[in-house]
Amino acid sequence: NCLLLCKEIKTMFLYILGLVTVWYLYRWYKESKRVPNKGSKYVYITGCDSGFGNNLAKHLDKLGFCVIAGCYTEKGETELKKVSSERLTAISLDVAKSESVKKVAAFIKTLVGEKGLWAVVNNAGVATPSGPVDWLTIDDYKSMLAVNLNGVIDVTLSVLPLIKKARGRVVNVASVFGRISPFGGPYCVSKYGVESFNDSLRLNMAPFGVKVLCIEPGFFKTSVTDTVMLKNQFKGLWDRLPQDMKDDYGQTFLETSEFNQLRDSDLMKVVHCMEHAIASIYPRYRYSPGWDAKFLWLPISYMPTWISDRFFLRYSPKPKVSMI
Ligand SMILES: NC(=O)c1ccc[n+]([C@@H]2O[C@H](COP(=O)([O-])OP(=O)(O)OC[C@H]3O[C@@H](n4cnc5c(N)ncnc54)[C@H](OP(=O)(O)O)[C@@H]3O)[C@@H](O)[C@H]2O)c1
């Protein structure tokens, strides 16, 4: 009897394994299909001076798309033009300024004509000021939300009619910190906002044939995660605290606050997800590039609050007056 049961369990296991393999093969085949006529498709990317945006602009240019690269600095614009084809248009853009967003949208309208815009990638973002909530002012929040959240909404609305015309795509770069908030400050707030905007837009645009896709990377080695920059700005926030707050937190809090997260230096993991969202006939709703995103942050985000809180509190520095 026991032998028979073992045999049945083995057969069942093989069936399940077979089904899972067939499912993955089917998904791989379906997702490998790409949209035709790349040369006549315009893709507008924000924040192309560095990091993911810069790499994506160059990658899509090589694949034959017509890239419109929004650059924050003149230097970024010039350097990107130097290494790309004539199809790529680099243009000055500050997503936090409505005038700049409008100007670029008007330019894109004349450029794409009746075809419309195939995709917009809301990539521009900042990660500072970042620190404990009670170290910050409302202006600190406003300055980051202006780029990371209002910028995303403003840019999207400015080109949405052109995207509807092309039955195209909106790709929003959120973060794993749009799913869980392990630290204070406006960054997670802004990324939760992007997630929400993404989800409501996806539902609202579905009847128009517009796809809305979200990228939620883990930690990658770019300027937003630069250890020295993050430490310096943290020290800057500390320096402006009133003495009684400094006494509550204690010098050790400042010294033991850690910014050396494990950062993946393969930015192409993120770029390939962005490219898939733009060019695949069957894109995914969500992409989570990075091992830390898949095996740490997302699983923690599904856990009960008491477990995730315990985990974060266990591994974060405590103020001098801490009662836990
Ligand atoms: N790196 C990560 O681990 C990580 C993880 C999750 C999500 N993300 C998100 O990924 C996106 C890209 O970041 P990244 O990691 O590639 O860092 P990055 O290299 O700093 O890229 C951000 C880009 O946005 C530009 N930018 C800043 N303020 C702007 C503004 N007001 N208007 C237009 N552009 C502006 C920056 O220009 P300057 O370089 O000239 O300042 C830079 O080119 C961001 O939304 C970020 O939040 C990053």
From TrEMBL:
Keyword Membrane annotated: yes
Signal sequence annotation: none
GO molecular function list: oxidoreductase activity
Species: Xiphophorus maculatus (Southern platyfish)
Transmembrane segments: 12-29
Keywords, ordered alphabetically: Membrane, Oxidoreductase, Transmembrane, Transmembrane helix
Gene Ontology process terms (BP): steroid metabolic process
Taxonomic path: Eukaryota, Metazoa, Chordata, Craniata, Vertebrata
Domain of life assignment: Eukaryota
Protein known as: Dehydrogenase/reductase (SDR family) member 9
PANTHER family linked: DEHYDROGENASE_REDUCTASE (SDR FAMILY) MEMBER 9 (PTHR43313:SF52), SHORT-CHAIN DEHYDROGENASE/REDUCTASE FAMILY 9C (PTHR43313)
Cited Gene3D superfamilies: NAD(P)-binding Rossmann-like Domain
Family: Belongs to the short-chain dehydrogenases/reductases (SDR) family.
